[in-house]
Amino acid sequence: MKNLFVGNMSFQTTESDLQELFKPFGQVTRIHVVTDRETGRARGFAFVEMPNDAEAAQAVTALDGKELNGRNLKVNEARPKGAQPPRPGGSGSGGVPPQRAILERRLSRIGAAAAGAALVGFRA
After folding, report:
1. Strands 42-50 vs 71-72: parallel, antiparallel or unpaired
2. DSSP three-state, residue 94
3. Are strands 74-77 and 42-50 parallel, antiparallel or unpaired?
């Protein structure tokens, strides 16, 4: 059983689209298009479960980089949730040191001008 990650999807891509895309490679047991909890809108990625490892590997090879709905898909074997490699800066905020990222989020509530003034001289 392989769980595949499908990323860089168009927000209009549906489970049916993915079913048709993966069907030529073998049986698909589950498709989960990830949606935003608040809006219900697709977040641009999904997980596809295939019971046969060889078929899943063939699908990854054939579909990684394939265009669907105007986007080049990123398809690979999904990693367990806690197994992602650490991001630069260790905060998950694109390399911004954790203390600065926290401060920026708090200050964003009081407005850009005040936040910018407060960050002057902040050293990470």
Report:
1. unpaired
2. coil
3. unpaired
Structure tokens given for 19? 């079913």
Count of all residues that appear for the chain in the document: 124
Q: How far is CA 75 from the centre of its chain?
A: 11
Record the pTM.
0.66
Tell me, rounded to whole angstroms, the distance of Cα 10 from its chain centroid: 12
Query: Which of 11-20, 33-42, 46-55, 113-122 is the least confident region?
Result: 113-122
List of domains in the chain: 2-79 (3.30.70.330), 89-124 (no CATH)
How far apart CA 66 and CA 112 sit, in angstroms, is 41
Q: Are 59 and 31 in contact (CB under 8 A)?
A: no
